[in-house]
Amino acid sequence: MGEKTEFEPGDKVPNDGVYMEVGEKSFHTEIQNPQQVTLERGDFFPETTNHNRKWKKKTKARVH
């Protein structure tokens, strides 16, 4: 088992970094101007702009 890479609003931030919104199925969904936030470990993820979106660390949020 690996570490969790996608997070829901209200989840606790595991590591410091910049997180951005991704589509529910980020491989197929490209979001125009996704929301980005800088968070520190222990903070909580804010609400996304759409209920189908999740948070992902920016370095891992690339679309293939």
From TrEMBL:
Basic residues: bias regions: 51-64
A Pfam match: YjzC
InterPro entries: YjzC (IPR025549)
Stretch list, region Disordered: 45-64
Official protein name in the record: YjzC family protein
Species assigned in the record: Paenibacillus farraposensis
